[in-house]
Amino acid sequence: MKKKIIVIGAGVGGLATAVRLQSQGYDVTIYEKFDRVGGKMNLIAGDGYNFDLGPTIVMMPEVYEDVFKFAGVNPKDYIPMEKIEPMYSLYYDDGDKLKVTTDYVEMNKMLEGISYNDAQGFYEYIAEIYRRYLVAKDDFIEISFRGPKDFYNPYTIKQTFKLKTFDSAYHTISKYLKDDKLRKMLSFQTLYIGISPYNGPSIYTIIPMVEMLYGVWFIKGGMYTMANAMERLFKELGGNVYLNSEVDEIIFKDKKAVGIRLNGKEIYADYIVCNADFPYAMKNLVKDKEVKGKYTDEKIDKMKYSCSCFLMYLGIDKKLDQMDCHNVFFAKDFDKNIEDIFTGTVPEDPSFYAYVPTKMDESLAPKGKESLYVLVPVPELSKSKENWDEKFVNEYKERILNIISNKINERDLKAHIEFEKLITPNDFKDKFNVYNSATFGLAPTLFQSNYYRPHNKYKYAENLYFAGSSVHPGAGVPMVLTSAKLACEEIIRDDKGE
């Protein structure tokens, strides 16, 4: 008889775990609070415009494809991808614009145009960080930590020192590059996982290296195609998805997870996978104090959290020829901008990211028009000095639009907006159950990473597993997909009695 598995939440981690387990012969059911799957990898649509709600940048495409390959199907039939060139454009405060590419002939021209020493430093950075990446990948990212012996052993300790994690990402990059614009080019990516480049461990210099070596990709139809494709495959494999089904509680018996409570009804299973944000789950779904372990409500409150985001989804009734698919706008004072985010001040002069998916797929907007997505990193709510009321939201929107208009020399940009939707930190907290509105989950500080991050196999009760951005190995779609892989492996390992 097939073992039954319940997956709480149809976000990226929940869907990927469900696909993997269903393909291995388990009877898997997903319960999702929304009326469609995807979690933060979702869709916003209106007036013919389509936007990805959350993630937009496809890095490490083989990690995306692995979900489908594991299930025995061809990824190209589900998530057709193409490489983006240039990867992105960087807009600086002095009016300069750099196009970043994996065409190394063009990249070298750009680097040498700035400094021959920095061109040499760039390649030294790539070589050194690639060495660290291989260690991180093989000995940390793709390894599940169950207990102290998995981490505190001579081999792992030796490998830890190879990562050189005690420096900051920005300081590490500064050893190779002297030009400030190039330093920013390789340091802003820590904001992809919600931490400061000035305080984030140097291991996260891996992120720009991965972009430079493996490129940035686009899934036809946008990122939501990935969520749709996993749901489609899961159902083809015989899995069940129940939408509009918000789980109230995980049920435990004798320190074992045995089921869930949903609308007053108890539903039992052999294993439970929780894809809800870990801090939220520990406070709201794990109500049995005997199995909270160290993750008491007080402990959850004291943990460190990533930043939040203010998001704008704009339908523009003309083409934006000045912009590429991915664009980053730097504040005049980048240091202050970052300091503000992580000390609770919504930046007056922010750095932000703008995405124009219609550069790759014109079907995402009406003919001759553009879908424009803007993401501004801002403080999470426990630190924020703003409550994001309607007046402040509208004022901040105007500020961002003015910056974009000036940077791309499109003075009447506001007059061309015919669709608009905004998402604030309050929406992340209230609609997506994101604790403190920390969009990227627990901050990946040194002591909230690897062994010190919540584990995929829950430590304080049997038969409970986690996948998502707040558990090992961390935030970002490739890491969340890896967390799903690890959760699946842990269940299979336990089921076999290993």
Produce the secondary structure layout:
Layout: E1 4-8, H1 12-23, E2 27-31, E3 43-46, E4 49-52, H2 61-70, E5 81-83, E6 88-91, E7 97-100, H3 104-114, H4 116-141, H5 148-151, H6 154-163, H7 169-174, H8 180-185, H9 206-214, E8 217-219, H10 224-236, E9 240-242, E10 249-253, E11 256-262, E12 265-268, E13 271-274, H11 278-284, H12 297-302, E14 308-316, E15 326-329, H13 334-343, E16 352-355, E17 370-378, H14 390-407, E18 417-423, H15 425-431, E19 464-466, H16 477-495
Parallel strand pairs: 1-2, 1-13, 2-9, 6-15, 13-19
Antiparallel strand pairs: 3-4, 5-8, 6-7, 10-11, 11-12, 14-17, 14-18, 15-16, 16-17
Helix pairs in contact: 1-10, 1-16, 2-16, 3-4, 4-6, 4-9
Quick rundown:
The chain has 498 residues and is an alpha/beta fold. The chain has 16 helices and 19 strands.
Structure, explained:
This protein is α/β, with parallel strands linked by helices. The protein has 16 helices and 19 strands. The protein has three domains: 213 residues, FAD/NAD(P)-binding domain (3-Layer(bba) Sandwich), CATH 3.50.50.60; 111 residues, no CATH class; 127 residues, Guanine Nucleotide Dissociation Inhibitor, domain 2, CATH 3.30.519. The strands form five sheets. Strands 7-6-15-16-17-14-18 form a seven-stranded mixed β-sheet. Strands 9-2-1-13-19 form a five-stranded parallel β-sheet, covered by helices on one side. Strand 11 and strand 12 form a beta hairpin. The longest helix has 26 residues.
